[in-house]
Amino acid sequence: MAVPSSGIISLVRIKNEVSEDDYNAGVGYTGISLQELATGVINTNSASAPNSNAPHAMSEWYGYDQDAEAAFSDAYSVAKSITTGTGQAVYIADSDAHFNFIHSDAYTISFWVKPGWSANLNTNIHLFSSTTAGSTDASANMIRIYYHEGLNRLYYEYRSASTAKKSNFYLFHSNSGNHAAAYAAANLGTSYWSAANRGNVGDDDFTMITVAKSTTNSAGSSYAKVYWNGTWLGNGHYGANGTGQGTPSMTSVDRQIALGSNSWNYTKSGDSTETQFNDLTIWDKQLSATEISELYNSGTRLDATSHSAATNLQMYYKFENDGTDSSGNEAPNFTLSGNSNFETL
Amino acid sequence: MKYYIVTSKVFETLNKENIDYALSSIDNSKNIVVTSDTIDSALSTFTNASGLSTYTFNNHTDWVGDNTGITEEEIADVKYISGL
C-alpha cells in the first residue's frame, strides 16, 4: 500500500513504505529523518515522489509508491536472427516451475509476431516452442505454435512422445468449411502469410497469436482455441476434437522456451529477414474470447498487468530493450544471443 | 510408406488418397511424395524418412528457404491433404 495522498501521514510509516513496501507494515523504526528518506533510494516510477532538495516536507511524500512500475511503453521488440542454433536463439530455461504445463492443464499463450519470412520459405517457422529444459528431444513435453509457409497452415501441437501427440491446424487461403473463419480472421487472401502479406495486423504490423487451452487433453477447437488478433480462427482443419496419436501424458518438469525457433535444436527460424516478436504473455487459465479481445485492445498492446485476468498472468515479457519478466512472479529472463536483438519499433 | 521425389507432372497423376506427405520444390518443378503406392518414374527413391530428410538437407536450395532441410518430424507430422 502506498503513502496516502492526503491527510495526516506518519514519518515511521513513510519509512515502512520505503523499506517494507507497505505503509501500514507496522515495523518500528527510530532515528529516521525526512532528509535521510528523501536523499535515499527513491522509486522514480512513482507518480508522486519527494525531491532530494532541502528543505524537506512531509507533503512531498503524499501518494509515494515504493513498488510502482514504470508506465507502460511499447518502443521495442525482439528480432530473431534467421541464423539458427543456440548461439542465435531467443530463449529461457525455466528452473523453478514457472512454465511446466501438462496435457491436463488449462493455459493461454499469447504473443505478437511480425513476419520476416518470404514466400520462398517453403518450410515451417517455429513461433513459440517449449520442451523439457536441457533436452534435445523434440518430443520431451513439447508445446509449440508454428507456421508452415509452404502450406499456409498455423499449427498448435503438444506431445509427450512421437507417438503421443495432439494437434490442429488453421488454413488461411480457403474460404470454405472449417477454414472460412481463419480465412476471414487473417485476411491474407489467397496468398500465403509472409513479410509481403501480413493480413490483418495491429500496431506496427504485428499480429497477436493466442492459443487458449482448456483442461481437456485435446487440441481440438472445442478445447484449445486459437486466435488471430482478437478473432477466433474457428474449428481448424481437424475440428472440435482435433487430431493426434496416442494419449499425451506430459510431466510437470521445467521447460526451455524459444521464440522464433524450435526449442530442442533452435532451428526453423525463417528466411529473408528477421521475424520480430513482442509482448509474450503466459496465463495459467484458458482466457475467454472476451478476455483475449481485451488483451488485443483493438491492436494496441497494453500493460497486461492491468488486464482483468492479471491475477492469472504467469509470465509476461514486454521486451522493452530487455528480457525481464513483468508478471510479478520473478520468472526467468529471456536471453538473446548472436544476431538476435532488441529493436526499436 | 515409400519415399520419392517426382516431377510435378508425375505428381499430378498420383492417387492423392494414398499420399501421406507431399511438398513442392521452391520452383514447383518437382515434389517430395510419401505414399503407400509404388512409383516407377520417380526422380529419386529413398528407403525411409531419414534418407529423404538427409537428401533435403544436402540439397536445401531446391526445397527450403532457410538453409536447413525437411526434418523427419515434419515428414511424420505435416499431413498431405488433397486440394489444400
Structure notes:
The complex is a heterodimer of chains A (345) and B (84). Chain A is mainly β and 345 residues long. Chain A has two domains: 11-61, no CATH class; 76-344, Sandwich (Jelly Rolls). Helices cover 9% and strands 27% of the residues of chain A. Chain A is elongated. Chain B has helices spanning 8-13, 49-58, 60-63, 72-77, and strands spanning 2-7, 19-24, 30-35, 44-46. Chain B is globular, with a radius of gyration of 12 Å. The mean pLDDT of chain B is 97. Chain A binds chain B through residues 82, 84, 117-118, 120-125, 138, 148-151, 153, 155, 157, 162, 165, 167, 171, 174, 237, 267-272, and chain B through 23-26, 63-68, 70, 73-74, 76-78, 81, 84.
The largest sheet of chain B has its strands arranged as: 2-3-1-4
What general form of chain A does the structure show? elongated
Assembly annotation: heterodimer
The biggest beta sheet of chain A reads: 8 strands, antiparallel
Span of the ends, CA to CA of chain B: 21 Å
The first-to-last residue Cα distance of chain A is 35 Å
Q: What structural class is derived from the secondary structure elements of chain A?
A: mainly beta
**Most strands sheet of chain B:** 4 strands, antiparallel
The count of helical stretches of chain A stands at 4
Helix content of chain A: under 10%
Shape of chain B: globular
